[in-house]
Structures are given as C-alpha cells and as structure tokens.
Q: What sequence folds into this?
C-alpha cells in the first residue's frame, strides 16, 4: 500500500491531475479497503499542506467517498481521516455529509463521550455533527445518546455552543428553503430578486453609528465571500434624527441619503428596487449566503452557516453581544425588514448580490448589509 501511495503522491507533484487518484480510491473502497483512502488522505495532507491544489483536489473527494458510503463500517475511517487532517473546512464538510447520509442512531458511535471530546478536531467534528443532525431533522435535545459534546460542559467554550439545540422559527424557515449539504461548487443560487420598485423621495437625516466590531458582526454571513473569493461587503448602522415613517417610498428616499458605497452613482432619476420582507426571509438569505458560499468556495456548511446567519441578523437587529437566541429572535421580529437592489458598479450582478435593510423597533435606528461576489 505504501509504494502505491508514494507513486500517487509523486504523480500529484508533477502534474495538475487527480483523476487517477479518484478512480483508484473508488475501486479500493468498493473492494472494502477504506483504510487505503485514510492513508492516502493523510499522506496528501502531510506532503502538500492545506494551501495546495493537491489538498483541495484530493481530500474533499476522499471524504465524500467515505462519508456517503452506506452502512456504519465507514464511519470510523471517516472520522480517522477527518481528525487526522484537522482542517476546519474538511471537518465541516464531513459532518454535513455524515448527517445527511446516515441515520442518527447509526452515528451514535461518532458522538464521543464528554471525556474524549473536550477539545481539538474530535470536539469540532462532534460539534458540527450535532448541529448538522439538528438541521437534518433529528431531535438532538431529546436524543439520549447525545451525551458527548452536546451534553458536555465544554460545549459552552465552543463557537457553536451558543446555538440552541432545537430549531427556532427562523431556523425552520431558512433551512426548509436552503439545503446546502449536497450543492457542490459555485453559481447554484442567486440571492437577489427584488419585486418592488419605487422612485426616490427626499433623504431623511441620519448620523452614522457604525463601529468596526458591529460591521464585522453584520457581515458574518458573507465573510467567506470576501476571504475565499472575489467578494466585498458593506455594513453600516445609523441613528435617525426623527421617527421614520415606515413605508417603502420613505425607506428608498432614506437609502439615497446615507452615502452608501454600494449605491454610489445613483441619483434621483434612478430607480432603487425595494421589497418588504419577513424576518424568516431575511434569515434564509443570510443562511444561504453563509452555508453555500460565494463564487469560489462552498461556504461554511450547515452548522457554521447557521451560526453566521444568526450573528448577522442579530447585529442587524441591534442585539447586544451577550444576547441569547431567544432575545435575538424577539428583536428580529420587532424590526421592519427590506431587501434592495440597484444597478450600480459596486454590485457585480452575476449571481451573488445581497442588499438588506433593518429598521429597528424604536424606529430611530437602521442597519444595512450589502454584499456581492463574482467568479
């Protein structure tokens, strides 16, 4: 086995071709040799590292072959590969695949006991898998065998520990409309699609209140568009001088007067397209953006996509950093929500455009998130 893997590794180093590796891996798995895939994946990760095309071309197909193979026999080698590679993207991908291709009771052995799941890649896999199972429909909080990460005191220290172990109203609406786990590659879903156009009216008076931390939190759902693709986003908050008359025409006029970069070049003769939206629709758009990614990345997958969507909508709604999910949801419900779109040079207008407005409950504070990406 070692000589064959060494030959494959040398071949990967000489040419940008992984087809032979994929074919051989499929054949060895069909012959019952899952260990070959594990050894090959660990060797590629060790030889070439995470930033190489060899890693990106070989590791995801190997994980997919193992994680989607029927039966419980392939779960242990899948986890061995994922934990040995210790890459966040691979871990999230594997958890999404395991949760959608295996029943919850079959995955019980993967969720390790709390003593073994304190930190490191094992804890990350357990955390992601717990939330992927939840998104796939498992009643995680009522399942006795979730005695590892989900019931562990170490859960609170993990980023996913903030998320509830049951789906909220926002979660249910978003995940019902967007299933990210088996959507490979870019370009599969356009996020824009406004339905209502109104001419601009006079701008309202507003003072910008954006801070760096608030902008980062608002942009959490589209951060992968920027870090791993060609995207950019604009996130801002404002305090209005007077109570805003919540009507689409008024909001359009207000947007024209805020000095947003994404609307640069528009004037009163142009048409800014606006649509009133429900909180669930806004959350769905954020979840889709985070979970499925931009033009050149497959996104954060379900578990961390859910977390990013919650962070964005919480910040848009003005929730304090220590707010609970229940508190965030109440603030979100009290906001008036809109999507917007405009034909400006800032938006790439390919398939990944997003424009969101939140007018908070006091009708004095307004938040904006705009994002775009291109292949």
A:
């Amino acid at each position: 086995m070692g000589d064959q893997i060494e030959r494959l590794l040398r071949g990967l180093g000489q040419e940008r071709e992984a087809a032979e590796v994929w074919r051989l891996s499929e054949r060895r798995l069909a012959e019952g040799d899952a260990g070959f895939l594990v050894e090959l994946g660990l060797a590629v990760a060790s030889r070439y590292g995470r930033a190489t095309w060899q890693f990106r071309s070989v590791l995801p197909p190997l994980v997919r072959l193992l994680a989607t193979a029927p039966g419980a026999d392939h779960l242990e080698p899948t986890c061995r590969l994922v934990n040995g590679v210790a890459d966040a993207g691979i871990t999230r991908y594997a958890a999404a695949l395991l949760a959608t291709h295996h029943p919850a009771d079959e995955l019980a052995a993967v969720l390790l006991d709390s003593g073994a799941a304190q930190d490191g890649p094992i804890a990350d896999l357990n955390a992601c898998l717990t939330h992927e199972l939840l998104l796939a429909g498992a009643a995680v909080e009522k399942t006795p065998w979730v005695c590892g990460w989900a019931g562990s005191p170490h859960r609170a220290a993990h980023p996913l520990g903030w998320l509830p172990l049951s789906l909220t109203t926002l979660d249910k609406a978003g995940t019902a409309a967007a299933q990210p786990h088996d959507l490979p590659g870019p370009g599969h879903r356009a996020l824009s699609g406004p339905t209502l156009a109104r001419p601009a009216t006079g701008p309202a008076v507003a003072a910008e209140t954006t801070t760096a931390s608030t902008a980062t939190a608002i942009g959490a759902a589209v951060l992968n568009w920027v870090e791993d693709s060609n995207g950019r986003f604009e996130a801002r908050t404002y305090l209005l001088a007077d109570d805003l008359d919540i009507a689409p025409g008024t909001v359009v006029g207000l947007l024209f007067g805020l000095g947003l970069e994404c609307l640069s070049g528009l004037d009163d003769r142009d048409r800014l397209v606006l649509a009133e939206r429900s909180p669930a629709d806004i959350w769905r758009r954020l979840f889709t953006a985070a979970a499925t990614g931009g033009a050149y990345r497959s996104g954060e997958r379900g578990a961390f996509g859910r977390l990013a969507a919650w962070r964005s909508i919480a910040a848009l709604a003005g929730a304090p950093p220590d707010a609970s999910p229940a508190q965030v949801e109440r603030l979100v419900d009290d906001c008036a929500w809109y999507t917007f779109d405009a034909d400006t040079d800032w938006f790439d207008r390919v398939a990944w455009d997003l424009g969101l407005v939140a007018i908070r409950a006091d009708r004095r504070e307004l938040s904006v998130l705009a994002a775009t990406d291109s292949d």
The longest helix spans residues 53-68.
